[in-house]
Amino acid sequence: MADRSRAAVDVADNSGDKPLTAGAEQADQSTADGVDQTGERDTESTEAQGSGGSESPAKASPPELHSGHKLARRYRLEECVTRLDGFSSWRAVDEKLRRAVGVHILPADHTRARSVLAAARSSALLGDPRFVQVLDAVDENDLVYVVHEWLPDATELTALLAAGPLESHDAYQLVSQIASAMAAAHREGLAHLRLNPNAVLRTSSGQWRIRGLAVNAALRGASSDTPQRTDTEAIGALLYAALTQRWPYENDAYGLSGLPKDVGLIAPDQVRAGVHRGLSELAMRALANDGATASRHEAACTTPEELVKAVGEMPRIRPPEPVFTAPPEYQRTTYQQGTYGRPAPHPGATQPVPAPPPPLQSGTGRVLKWAVSALLIAALGLGSWQLADALMERGGGKSDDTNKTQTTDGGDKNKPKPPRPIAIQDASDFDPFGGDRSEKPGDIYKVYDSDPGTYWQTDRYMGEWGAKFGNLKSGVGVILDLGKVQQVGNVTVTFEGSTAVDLRAASGDAEPQSFDGFTKVADGTGPTVQLKPGKELEARYLLVWLTEIPLQSNGEYRGRVVDIKVTG
Questions:
Q1: Amino acid 9: pLDDT
Q2: pTM of the model
Q3: Where do the domains of the chain lie, and which CATH numbers do they carry?
């Protein structure tokens, strides 16, 4: 969903600069395409995936800059991560906001300087949090520079694949999120054209981000007559690499080995055992080009939108079950084992049996034995006499005891049954009043994964009406599928920040296709909300509907659902 209808934030206040207005968004480190986080250069001048495009030589030399140099008295250069084709990329510090940023710098007379500025400004206007955000784009003092967000805890796909292929669920999330993001970009007329493992990052929260939208292509002079097809094939190559740890072309690239010569494009599940069949076929559909065909003869996906649809038609791939390690066996101390003060036994040796103490044989011993015996007999007799006397006095006590027991048992039967947990079988985001009818579908499973460190979040909203979704709609929500119609007693929703929420339910066994198909049964506000219907409720589909969202620490309004529990 484009953010053009929302309030923009001016992120440049340099004297003499032309300020670039763009919404502040999630941070990601951003360096030139083809350069990893350690500064290693990608020496390939063209994409191994055959994405099309041309590279024109630069006529200008890169500017002579050094660590400690400041741009606009604000951005202090820290480390040069690449110097290539007449431009340089740096890790820098925004001294005004005290945060790390990335900067691309070109001479103002560079042959691509104008196109880089235009691409940066277009990318910033998209304002989509799935892309690294452009913060500033300036033409000043014979220099053109573009400032990006920088996220130190994000990891490039290149580095992830160096350790091995991704799990099926991670690969599913990768293709789902990247395809959805690129579909949104193409709806706004923006293409990437340099989408490769160096341009895709996974944050510490598990989100996938894309850096260099439009800008990387402008920096390298890449172009394409079929930009949607180029980006779709690039997503297919990313999925292929994630499943197999191989690059789906004959040439080695991005630290990955290519396919054997003269074999052609073979399906991922033929390259490596255990590859998910559905994901293997999806990669082939996106890569189908130049004679390569998809297995099972499905139609090729030629646009990111078609790829998003194909992902949606697949059965959802759930995260793997957590593996619990059994705690070490409890070891008792020697004192607890009853050997305190004794030497430890030696295996294989015959252990002596301790001899009992000798009996008391003296006259004093005999007297003590008779005295103890007499006391025991007296105690037993006294106890028996008291018990008989109590029974005679109470008379009908047995009947009273019986009645008391029966009353107690009857009372236990009338006690309310403890609540039983109801497993959420599936969930989907619900945005019936939004432009594309979805908000962050790739993260929806996080509302019931029982992980307090993850969450599903809405799009961001800015300005005076941000808490009310910018007055663009009445709310967004999550539809829960309980698998079958059953009695619902309570729904507990945990948010990040105080949030107003309604609980709505649908009658019957069919999922409603509109907001009117759900009826409101409870509401509440807070960081943790107990939603208990006012009367007995039987339902299969529940709608957790957010009506007011909190202001987050970065100055934007977002609803974040950490966990949902349902009990019957």
A1: 30
A2: 0.53
A3: 155-313 (1.10.510.10), 421-567 (2.60.120.260)
